[in-house]
Design brief:
The complex is a heterodimer of chains A (about 280) and B (about 300). Chain A is about 75% helix and about 0% strand. Chain A is mostly helical and about 280 residues long. Chain A folds into two domains: about 60 residues, no CATH class; about 160 residues, Orthogonal Bundle (MetI-like fold), CATH 1.10.3720. The longest helix of chain A is centred in the first third of the chain and has 32 residues. Chain B has 14 helices and two strands. In chain B, α3 packs across α14 and α4 packs antiparallel against α11. The longest helix of chain B is centred in the first third of the chain and has 36 residues. The two termini of chain B are about 30 Å apart. Classes of the chains: A mainly alpha (about 280), B mainly alpha (about 300). Chains A and B meet through α2, α5, α6, α7 and α10 of A and α1, α2, α5, α6 and α7 of B.
């Protein structure tokens, strides 16, 4: 807003310097713990138990990562996490796209009621209804399978809501032109609407993937054997398998879970922030 | 607009002239919403009804075939159980402090960080980071930071010449420690939502206030806060609901202890249902939690639909 020269003058005023220091301090409060996680993961155990602690490891010990990785079938956990997060995403995509199209582009009796129902599903968290779903799943023999982690999240109210907004903004002419070309409705959805809504799909995809990659509660409830456990469960078991105070190995294990998300966040900050705060609009 | 689209569509669609084709057209929107609604029914609405049903029975996960109708006994047992009152009170205290601190700090951060220069964007991203990290990792990380003997937090306290704090080890400090972790995780999210709200306030209001030489506090009180009320309200509801369902940090960090001082609703339901095999008590407590969340949701929708937005 202001001219370049006045900005420069402001940047060197004492008040501005104090503000810069405060900005850095505030950032550190939220970022330094993750740095501490990383630094701890590289320390030897005797150094972990030193008080007051050292900032940088005296000897960089890379073996903690190997110890964490070998404390359980981590490749399997990683694979399961990936299958669940991607499986949920695909299913949510397949159910949300047609539903969002119908809500955005058709007028039919019951539309508002059905959309209202969708919005209710947005508000009630899964923690409230895990018990009956567990009983259901066990009745179907699906407890302790990956299905029990994927199916309950098969439709996303948030995804439908987001896509509907985006489909509503597509100009009528685009759809009219396609219909004149004898394109079927089904084709219009997947060949025209979906490509137009790509930014929103990316936004939703990031949200959904991160949510399910991080999710601890649901796999804790639904799984009890290593073949179907996901990464967050495997990580949380490190305390039992390695000893509750072997913080260097525990932190190294957590890095496996946290690092991919931090990398994605670093490169797609804007997308991710938009994805997570979208619900507020 | 809808009529136009519908009118334009049918002539094209009816080119085949087969009645069944028209029938398909009529049901097409329903066909499109059915898959999603099937999932909602199966994993959302049916479970809710089933949960209410289960709360009237004495049952356990050990043997699902042996269910016994007990009427309201589960609720009676729940509301005569002193532990449950402790759980409710813990949940309430935790929620009040998490929501008040999480929103209060975020509000001031948002007023401060809502600026264009690049450094503010970097700080915004920094404070948002905890929000996208798995709670299980955050819980373990903070256990390490709060370690009474070797933890970083006590090292910092000592560096300032302050006595070591007991954090999770003491009944007096455990709940406060969990509040700290939750606030730390949620502040970034709240701040960015506030900033989005601040940016949607029309600039001319501030220009008018500046012309009137309105003092800063008055502009804040008369323009910013009223214009931000939808955002404030949204965050209040969202934060309250998510505080009600806190579980991961309790499960990893305290297991509800020491002596029940951090036992809260979802953890209580989990313990009753999955560890103690009191299915009836667990479902009755779930119904209580559902009612609390449903009330908040209803309140949210009512206010939204009436648009009580000071506009």
């Amino acid at each position: 807003m202001k001219g370049g020269s006045s900005l420069n003058r402001l940047a060197t005023s004492p008040l501005k310097i104090i503000e810069r220091i405060l900005l850095i301090l505030v950032s550190l409060i939220f970022v330094f713990p993750f740095l501490w996680m990383m630094l701890t993961a590289f320390k030897t155990l005797p150094e972990v138990f030193r008080f007051p602690p050292t900032l940088l490891p005296e000897v960089w010990d890379f073996s903690n990562f190997l110890k964490a990785w070998e404390s359980g079938p981590f490749l399997k956990y990683l694979l399961n996490s990936f299958i669940v997060a991607v499986g949920v995403l695909i299913l949510q995509f397949l159910t949300a796209v047609p539903a969002a199209y119908a809500f955005a582009r058709y007028r039919f009796p019951g539309r508002n009621l059905l959309f209202g129902i969708t919005l209710i599903a947005l508000m009630i968290p899964p923690q409230v209804i895990f018990l009956p779903i567990y009983v259901q799943m066990s009745g179907w023999g699906l407890v302790n399978t990956l299905w029990s982690l994927i199916l309950p999240y098969g439709a996303s109210a948030f995804g439908i809501f987001l896509l509907r907004q985006s489909f509503m903004q597509v100009p009528d002419e685009v759809i009219e032109a396609a219909r004149l070309d004898q394109a079927s409705e089904w084709k219009i959805i997947w060949k025209i609407m979906v490509p137009i809504a790509k930014p929103v799909l990316v936004t939703f995809g990031l949200f959904s993937f991160i949510y399910h990659w991080n999710d601890y509660f649901w796999p804790l409830i639904m799984t009890n054997s290593d073949t179907v456990r996901t990464l967050p469960i495997g990580i949380s078991m490190l305390k039992a398998s390695e000893g509750s105070q072997v913080w260097n190995v525990i932190m190294a294990g957590n890095m496996i879970l946290v690092f991919p998300i931090l990398i994605i966040f670093f490169f797609a900050q804007r997308h991710i922030i938009r994805a997570f705060i979208y619900q507020s609009k | 607009m809808w009529k136009e689209i519908a009118l334009k569509r049918y002539p094209i669609r009816s080119k085949t002239g087969i009645p069944s084709q028209q029938l398909i057209e009529k049901f097409r929107p329903y066909l499109y919403v059915v898959p999603a609604l099937a999932f909602f029914t199966l994993f959302f609405f049916y479970p809710i009804a089933y949960m209410v049903y289960l709360s009237f029975y004495d049952w356990s996960l050990l043997d699902l075939s042996a269910m016994k109708w007990v009427g309201l006994e589960n609720f009676q047992a729940l509301f005569t159980d002193n532990d449950f009152y402790q759980v409710l009170s813990n949940t309430f205290i935790f929620t009040v402090f998490t929501v008040a601190l999480g929103m209060g700090i975020a509000f001031f951060l948002a007023l401060w960080l809502n600026q264009r220069a690049k450094i503010y964007g970097v700080v915004q991203a920094a404070i948002f980071t905890p929000h996208i990290i798995s709670l299980v990792s955050i819980a373990m990380l903070w256990m390490w930071l709060m370690d009474p003997q070797y933890g970083l937090l006590n090292a910092i306290l000592e560096w300032f010449g302050l006595p070591a704090y007991s954090w999770l080890a003491d009944t007096k400090s455990a709940l406060a420690s969990l509040v700290l972790v939750s606030v730390w995780k949620v502040v970034g999210y709240n701040t960015l939502v506030f900033i989005a709200g601040l940016q949607s306030i029309p600039k001319y209001l501030y220009e008018a206030a500046a012309l009137d030489r309105s003092p800063a506090w008055k502009t804040l009180w008369k323009i910013t806060i009223p214009m931000l009320s939808p955002t404030l309200f949204f965050l209040l509801i969202i934060n309250t609901i998510s505080s009600f369902q806190v579980f991961d940090t309790i499960y990893v960090m305290t297991q509800g202890g020491p002596v029940n001082s951090t036992n809260m609703l979802v953890f209580y339901i989990y313990e009753q249902g999955m560890d103690f095999y009191n299915g009836g008590i667990a479902s009755a407590a779930s119904v209580v939690l559902l009612l609390l969340v449903a009330l908040l949701t209803l309140f949210h929708f009512l206010v939204l639909s009436r648009k009580v937005h000071y506009r």
